[in-house]
């Protein structure tokens, strides 16, 4: 049973920090590894100031863009990458990757159960008639997770059909109470699927996962991955965009979808964003490390108060999301208000649950971020549905997250008293 202990929040936090020492040692190790890996990609590509200049118009022969895509691909173990501010969001990047890889009559099989809310409309399980994959003639099925939330490795292979063309894996939990899928588990899925169907394309929705582990999905054989630049790999400073990476031919097909067949990766001006893309990628391992420390603090703090948390503080992590089961709409809203009031931007506004395009239930969102909607910056949100889980993520600096969590606890105590 959860209780909002009346001990000073800062003391509870200090105790949690002491408990977390071994967990943080592991986070530091991963951060150092990934910083070295990213730095090496810069050095190997001989990045110089000439790569920071942008192009306009068609963007043909954009040196900086081409070098950025090479560095990015190397950093995440991919053959090629399409890293563009022309992607409106992570959902857009995922949609482009899938439309590139699938043809009418092909089947897309999600093996991590029901996907992230915004993908329902891309796939067409909700509002199919607006150009979804299903409207276009792509077949779709999902293979459920096991009751413990793990991927059904045996059943999944039996679920393959001759028309199955793409297997999709969502690495992060998204808005569901299930474990995220680690890179080792992704490798195991790939090994089993490719043993019977080497021709299948394995796609990974990599949102929130980048640089949380030493390896990335492409390092263990994923053919195609996609994600958002206003999450982990943008380091909190890239103002918009997304990426698709993986096998060269599949990345080129995605580029032909994003831009046009025949133009593909050769088009798309970088304007003045090249330097920011480089800088964001360069600091991303560090920012992800800060966000992971913040997530483990939230986990330890709320676990010590008796709330169910997922992941538990000492668990191996593969994304930056921390779920906290708050159990009531009042506590969920109070938690989000604590985050909002401690934000550098828009601290004076009050989060109110409302409709968000792409999401089915009302959602309450907190995020006083420099880049609108950026969730590598400190943010929290949750759909207004049972069991009222707060999804907490990000934090450009650990200290900021620490201050905000103190305020969250305060707002929750006030909500209970009211
Ligand atoms: C964030 C996210 C997406 C894409 O969301 P956008 O808000 O469109 O960037 C897709 N899948 C998962 C698991 C995500 O976390």
Folded structure, characterized:
The structure is a single chain. With 418 residues, the chain is an alpha/beta fold. 38% of the residues lie in helices and 13% in strands. It has helices at 9-19, 21-44, 63-75, 90-101, 119-123, 153-158, 183-196, 248-258, 274-304, 329-341, 398-417, and strands spanning 80-84, 107-110, 139-142, 164-170, 201-205, 224-228, 242-246, 308-310, 322-325, 363-366, 379-383, 389-393. The strands form two sheets. Strands 1-7-6-5-4-2-3 form a seven-stranded mixed sheet. The protein has a five-stranded antiparallel sheet with strand order 8-9-12-11-10, with helices on one face. Helix 5 (119-123) links the parallel strand 2 (107-110) and strand 3. Helix 2 crosses helix 3 (63-75). The radius of gyration is 21 Å and the shape is globular. The two termini are 20 Å apart. Bound molecules: pyridoxal-5'-phosphate.
Comma- or semicolon-separated keywords:
globular, alpha/beta, 418 residues, 7-stranded mixed β-sheet, 12 strands, binds pyridoxal-5'-phosphate, 11 helices, single chain, 5-stranded antiparallel β-sheet
């Amino acid at each position: 049973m959860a209780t909002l202990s009346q001990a000073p929040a800062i003391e509870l936090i200090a105790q949690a920090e002491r408990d977390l020492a071994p967990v943080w040692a592991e986070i530091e190790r991963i951060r150092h590894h990934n910083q070295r890996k990213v730095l090496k990609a810069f050095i190997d590509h001989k990045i110089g100031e000439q790569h920071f200049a942008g192009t306009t118009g068609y963007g043909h022969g954009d040196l900086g863009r081409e070098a950025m895509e090479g560095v990015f691909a190397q950093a995440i173990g991919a053959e090629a990458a399409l890293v563009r501010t022309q992607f409106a969001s992570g959902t857009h990047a995922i949609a482009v990757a899938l439309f590139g890889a699938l043809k009418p009559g092909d089947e897309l099989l999600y093996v991590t159960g029901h996907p992230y809310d915004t993908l329902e409309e891309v796939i067409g399980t909700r509002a199919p008639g607006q150009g979804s994959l299903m409207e276009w003639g792509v077949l779709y099925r999902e293979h459920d997770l096991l009751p413990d939330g793990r991927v059904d490795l045996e059943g999944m292979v039996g679920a393959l059909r001759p028309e199955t063309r793409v297997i999709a894996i969502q690495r992060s939990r998204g808005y569901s109470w299930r474990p995220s899928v680690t890179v080792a588990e992704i490798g195991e899925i790939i090994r089993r699927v490719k043993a019977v169907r080497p021709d299948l394309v394995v796609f990974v929705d990599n949102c929130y996962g980048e640089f949380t582990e030493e390896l990335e999905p492409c390092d263990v054989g994923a053919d195609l991955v996609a994600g958002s630049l206003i999450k982990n790999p943008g380091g909190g400073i890239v103002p918009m965009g997304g990426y698709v990476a993986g096998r060269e031919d599949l990345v080129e097909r995605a580029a032909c979808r994003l831009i046009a067949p025949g133009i593909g990766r050769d088009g798309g001006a970088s304007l003045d964003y090249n330097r920011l893309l480089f800088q964001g990628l360069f600091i991303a391992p560090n920012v992800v490390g800060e966000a992971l420390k913040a997530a483990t603090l939230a986990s330890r703090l709320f676990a010590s108060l008796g709330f169910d948390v997922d992941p538990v503080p000492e668990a191996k992590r593969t994304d930056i999301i921390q779920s906290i089961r708050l159990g009531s709409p009042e506590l969920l809203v109070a938690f989000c208000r604590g985050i909002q009031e401690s934000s550098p931007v828009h601290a004076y506004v009050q989060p109110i649950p409302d409709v968000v395009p792409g999401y089915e239930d009302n959602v309450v969102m907190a995020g006083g971020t420099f880049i609108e909607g950026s969730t590598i910056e400190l943010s929290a949100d949750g759909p207004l549905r049972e069991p009222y889980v707060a999804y907490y993520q990000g934090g450009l600096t650990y200290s900021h997250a620490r201050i905000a969590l103190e305020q969250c606890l305060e707002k929750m105590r006030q909500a209970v008293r009211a």
